Backbone:
């Protein structure tokens, strides 16, 4: 059983990873990726000649170009990515926890509410993205219609960097809260009810029970979902791409959309896209390592 697993991991994970790292040290692009250039002849045959512009090893040149701002807007995208990730994960966890606590109680129609709150998770991300983009439309979107009804001016959501990112964050909250809610609800149901009964008999207030029983009991689940949520949000391509489209003028791009544009727009620069990928992976590996170290220092097993 070990050998097939190693083979699958090698084919699906390690080979693409090594290939991507290698490409980040080359100048591979759409024009030089082929070793030969073939043309059709009048007789229906094909003549192939060596490509005079083949990809070459360029060392750290791609990293230098990206990190110094010679190519792209790396530091703007990096700042956007950090702000986007922090905002989304914070709201995902906070709202998800609140809903999980509410649904953990017995009340009429609880099952129906659980189903309804999971619906956003079941809808494809690009469908939700287009729906929310319509809601934030300046001329006929529901958000601006509501602002007008309360006497406020309509907002050009996608004409400014932070309002565009705000629109994307709201969309991603809609998509991400159900996962957090389900995971935390499972964690809540694993906490023994005897602990709450004992605390109530000792005169503990609801807040004291939440702080001293609920939150500590959720630590193992919270540690996992926060890490997963951070990784997913950091690389959440469709929301930024479909909701803001990078507007205005690329000001709302994040790192993963920057990688996409390097690979598939203009002269497709696969080496720059690979460099973006290596940088993104490095950041997430460093974060995951620091996060696990912090949890170990706090006595958590993860």
Residues:
């Amino acid at each position: 059983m070990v050998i097939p697993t190693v083979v699958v991991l090698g084919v699906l994970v390690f080979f693409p990873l090594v290939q991507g790292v290698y490409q980040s040290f080359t100048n591979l692009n759409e024009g030089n990726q082929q070793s030969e250039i073939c043309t059709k002849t009048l007789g229906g045959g094909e003549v192939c000649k060596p490509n005079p512009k083949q990809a070459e090893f360029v060392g750290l040149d791609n990293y230098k170009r990206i990190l110094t701002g010679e190519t792209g807007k790396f530091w703007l995208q990096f700042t956007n990515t950090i702000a986007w990730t922090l905002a989304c994960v914070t709201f995902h966890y906070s709202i998800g926890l609140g809903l999980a606590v509410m649904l953990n109680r017995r009340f009429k129609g609880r099952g129906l509410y659980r189903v309804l709150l999971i619906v956003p998770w079941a809808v494809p991300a690009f469908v939700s993205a287009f729906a929310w983009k319509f809601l934030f439309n300046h001329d006929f979107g529901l958000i601006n219609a509501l602002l007008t009804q309360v006497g406020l001016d309509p907002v050009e959501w996608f004409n400014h960097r932070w309002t565009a990112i705000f629109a994307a964050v709201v969309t991603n909250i809609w998509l991400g809260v159900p996962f957090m809610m389900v995971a935390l609800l499972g964690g809540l149901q694993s906490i023994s009810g005897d602990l709450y009964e004992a605390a109530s008999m000792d005169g503990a207030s609801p807040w004291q029970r939440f702080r001293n029983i609920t939150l500590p009991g959720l630590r193992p689940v919270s540690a996992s979902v926060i890490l997963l949520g951070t990784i997913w949000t950091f690389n959440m391509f469709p929301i930024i791409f479909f909701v803001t489209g990078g507007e205005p003028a690329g000001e709302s791009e994040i790192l993963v959309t920057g990688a996409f544009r390097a690979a598939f727009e203009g002269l497709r620069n696969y080496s720059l896209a690979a460099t973006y990928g290596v940088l993104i992976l490095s950041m997430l590996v460093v974060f995951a390592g620091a996060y696990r170290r912090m949890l170990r220092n706090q006595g958590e097993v993860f």
